[in-house]
Amino acid sequence: MTPLALTVGAVLLAAAAAFLALWLLELRRHRRLRGSREESEWDRIDRELELAEQAGRFRIAGELGDIAVQTVNRLVAHAEGIRYAATTDPEAAARATPALETIAREALGDLRRLQNVVREGQDAAQPQPRLHSARDLFRVMRDAGIEVAFTESGESFALRQGAELAVFRILQTALENALTHGGSGTRVTVAFSWTQDGLQVSVDDDGIRAAARRQGLDREGVDQATTYTIEEDLRAVTEYIDGVRLNELRDRAALFGGVLTAKTVPGVGFSLSVVFPALRHHNGVHGVELRR
């Protein structure tokens, strides 16, 4: 081989090495940008969620504050009436005392509801998302590695902001759990079923089958790897699944009259469903525990 050929070969090799180095740097930069975009998208969704939740709390707090003021006004007026009656008719004043106690308990209930709303807002000073951000959430989760399919039936209606946040947080947590426990390639079906006054939200994943698919098995192999026993099927029907995050979702759902159920689907994955029978009209304060 001539010196010229050796020189040309060396130049080409150096050029190829430089090109490969530049390509690797660009690939790394692209991955960093993609990760940064995903992180920024999560930050934006979280900010919108926090704003919606705070707005809902402020509105509910204002309504509860107005009710509490009216109840206290009734309490003061009744107490004044008893004081005047005590000077002329002590027995009438005594008969009016139980009503005074009833009004006082109503006032206490209103103030405790207000206290609950304010306490929830103490740890959430940032803005939060609304339900329309769900499609952004689906896109982010798809980028993270799970397949999300969304279906909707019935005629939708506008939700109060607090209710929107509750539904969004349920979706977010369910999808994050699907990614954490099911892993990459998990298929998730999210369904909204609207009724005249209510909403049912379901999130079903195939995390168990996804784990088998990641082993490179074909359809028949996946079916064999995910077989289950009758005992497992019976346990899935009767088992009550709890945990910190699931219990938090149950509390969120209960705040708006919703009931959450979660279960393992043997051989398939995990299923979560929340039924809100009267979400159109629910104001988020019914059923607050007052015995504290």
Question: What percent strand?
Answer: 5-15%
| Helix-strand category | alpha+beta
Q: Tell me roughly what share of residues is in helical segments.
A: 55-70%
Average of the residue pLDDT scores: 76
Tally the helices: what do you get? 8
Q: Main beta sheet, described?
A: 5 strands, mixed
**H and E order:** HHHEHEEHHHHEE
pLDDT < 50 runs, ≥5 residues: 2-9, 285-292
C-alpha geometry: elongated
Q: Strand arrangement, largest sheet? A: 1-2-3-5-4
Assembly state (oligomeric): single chain
How far apart the termini lie comes to 93 Å
Strand segment tally? 5
Radius of gyration: 29 Å
Structure description:
- Helix 1 packs antiparallel against helix 2.
- The protein has a five-stranded mixed beta sheet with strand order 1-2-3-5-4.
- The chain is elongated and about 90 Å long.
- With 292 residues, the chain is an alpha+beta fold.
- Helix content is 64%, strand content 13%.
- The protein has helices spanning 3-88, 90-122, 134-144, 161-182, 207-213, 219-225, 230-238, 244-255; strands spanning 147-153, 187-194, 199-205, 259-265, 269-276.
- It has eight helices and five strands.
List the helices and strands and how they pair.
Layout: H1 3-88, H2 90-122, H3 134-144, E1 147-153, H4 161-182, E2 187-194, E3 199-205, H5 207-213, H6 219-225, H7 230-238, H8 244-255, E4 259-265, E5 269-276
Parallel strand pairs: 1-2
Antiparallel strand pairs: 2-3, 3-5, 4-5
Helix pairs in contact: 1-2, 1-3, 1-4, 3-4, 4-5, 4-8
Considering the chains and any ligands shown, give keywords for the structure.
292 residues, alpha+beta, five-stranded mixed sheet, 5 strands, disordered N terminus
